[in-house]
Amino acid sequence: MATSLLHPNPTPTAITTLKHHHHHPSLKPTIPPHNVSFLTNTNRLNTNTTKCNAFFDYNVVNSLLDVGGDKFPTFLRSLLLEFEDLSDMQRWESVLFGSLIWIYLTSRPGVLIGAIDAYLLAPLQLGFDNLSGRRNLKTADFLVGNKIGEGSFGVVYSGVLVPKNVTVDQDVTKRGRSKVKVGIKGAEEFGEFEEWFNYRLSRAAPETCAEFLGSFVADKTNSQFTKGGKWLVWKFEGDLTLGDYIKDRNFPSNLESVMFGRVLQGVDSSRRNALIIKQIMRQIITSLKKIHDTGIVHRDIKPANLVVTKKGQIKLIDFGAATDLRIGKNYVPDRTLLDPDYCPPELYVLPEETPSPPPAPIAAFFSPILWQLNSPDLFDMYSAGIVLLQMAIPTLRSPAALKNFNLEIKTCGYDLKKWREFTRLRPDFQILDSESGRGWDLATKLISERGPLRRGRLSAASALRHPYFLLGGDQAAAVLSKLSSSRK
Ligand SMILES: Nc1ncnc2c1ncn2[C@@H]1O[C@H](COP(=O)(O)OP(=O)(O)O)[C@@H](O)[C@H]1O
Ligand SMILES: [Mg+2]
To answer: Strand, helix or coil at 88?
Structure first.
């Protein structure tokens, strides 16, 4: 199915290929015989049309093919050759039509890539997973440890996965037996969407989220498992989330050596704090851009759902409330899932009156229009703005302060500049106002209403082009030079 998509206009393409195959004997075997009679008919119709003209010179086509040689895919060859038989007007029309189709299929959220993913990559992954046993892990494969979280969907434990085919002897390291440390999450009424999203993300943007190791249905009941309950397993990416770091009095210095591998000597502390926060924001927004490019909106971006790894990477977790706007998966919002502290004013990724989605292929076909009209990705960008504000303004870090902020910002019509005049929370804007206020400017463009036609709030791609991220080069250079001089 996916291959047929690559071939937007199969019938007429094959038509003229036949006529020219004698120029290109290598094409001959690839043409199925049943096309022959059918195609020659049409060929006759086309003989009257003008040939050779300034724009699509026959020789140009031929020399292109010569240059391309055998590397030219067959369908491109036939496409080019077909041109020869069309009138000038028809040629322009087909070029225009082809380009429009191409733009449509490749514009966000990517119908073409989505089809390839759904009809080719997903079945391949399923087959591969079945062979490797990833989808039927067993309760006995785990040593389950502490409970590390309990949220909207079930319980999260840390644990270790003991691989079946690794014997103890093979597996001796300095620290003793090495096992994969895992986070496992499950419940009897499991959010089936979360599993689906993790498989999807492990194909589409694996580096942005916790490494997904697979799933299993508990085969017996014991203290942790209930028989029949579904469990998901991820690599345990880190002991603490950004939420844990933010709660600490020393934030953001407590992340300095994690993020930069060392303490930034010779840089004054407010500058260092600003750099750490910028580095975190850059990672969050880069990951958001990647998932949005595949049509997924996370819908639950907040510090507790961002795991900080030992290497200072920020991993997105908890896709239980995510939605895939490409095929309309899980888009009907369940408001109880959303965290009101980080939720944008629109509350929904799509307007409430949007009808429930048609079957996946049809939904996918219309998804670029839906995306253009509603910019559902901007939902996550508001939450990212709140994360920035909380990191940069110490008095907003506690949940109680955030609740007050949310009351105030609502009163101010979600206009952050107005809020700055109005607030009684005595915020310290030092970090946001540094570097000529670029951080503040970005915050005002994230925490705002999702206006019509995307005005009012930046998408992940445009946020990454904001001067806050771009114009830091001079400072980064200064920091690096200080780092290297302090080493001497
Ligand atoms: N892969 C992981 N690595 C490390 N910690 C994790 C991982 N997955 C979850 N956690 C921890 O478990 C907590 C809850 O997990 P989460 O998926 O957010 O579940 P919930 O739906 O209950 O919020 C997270 O805040 C985090 O501390
Ligand atoms: Mg969570």
So the answer is: helix
Which one has a higher pLDDT value, 214 or 238?
238
List all residues 6 or more positions away from 419 whose beta carbon is below 8 Å from its beta carbon. 405, 408, 409, 412
Kindly give, in sequence order, each residue whose CB lies less than 8 Å from that of residue 103, ignoring residues fewer than 6 positions away: none
- Radius of gyration of the CA atoms of the chain, in A: 28
Atom of ligand 1 nearest to the CA of 240: 27
CATH dotted code for 137-163+176-235: 3.30.200.20
d(CA 91, CA 89): 5
CATH H superfamily, domain 240-485: Transferase(Phosphotransferase) domain 1 (1.10.510.10)
φ, ψ (nearest 5 deg) of residue 133 = 80, 10
DSSP letters spanning 95-144: HHHHHHHHHHHHSTT-HHHHHHIIIIIHHHHHHHHHHHTTT---GGGEEE
- Measured between alpha carbons, how far is 251 from 240 in angstroms, rounded to an integer? 13
**Ligand found nearest the CA of 242:** 1
Determine the distance separating the centroid of ligand 1 and the alpha carbon of 224, expressed in angstroms. Answer: 17
d(CA 323, CA 294): 11
Which H helix or E strand runs over 73? Answer: none
Cα–Cα distances in angstroms (integers) from residue 73 to residues 7, 68, 69, 81, in the given order: 11, 9, 9, 13
Residue 245: CB within 6 Å of ligand 1? no
**Residue 307 near ligand 1, beta carbon < 6 Å:** yes
Asked if 198 and 153 count as a contact pair (C-beta separation under 8 A), the reply is: no
CA atoms within 13 Å, Cβ hemisphere of 363 = 17
Give CATH 1.10.510.10 domain extents, the chain. 240-485
Q: What is the pLDDT of residue 468?
A: 95
Give the residue from 399, 416, 383 showing the smallest Cα distance to 246: 399
Q: Give the separation between CA 390 and CA 78, rounded to whole angstroms.
A: 58
Q: Does 300 participate in catalysis according to the annotation?
A: yes
The structure's pTM equals: 0.76
Q: Whose C-alpha lies nearest to ligand 1, atom 2?
A: 236
152 lines ligand 1 (CB under 6 A): yes
pLDDT the model gives residue 192: 74
CA 305 / ligand 2 centre spacing (Å): 5
Q: Distances in Å between the alpha carbon of 187 and those of 17, 176, 177, 190? A: 58, 32, 30, 5
**Residue from 300, 318, 324, 377 carrying the catalytic annotation:** 300
Q: Where in the chain is the domain with CATH 3.30.200.20?
A: 137-163+176-235
Chain segment 468-482, per-residue pLDDT in tens? 998 665 555 555 555
Mean pLDDT of all residues in 43-72: 51
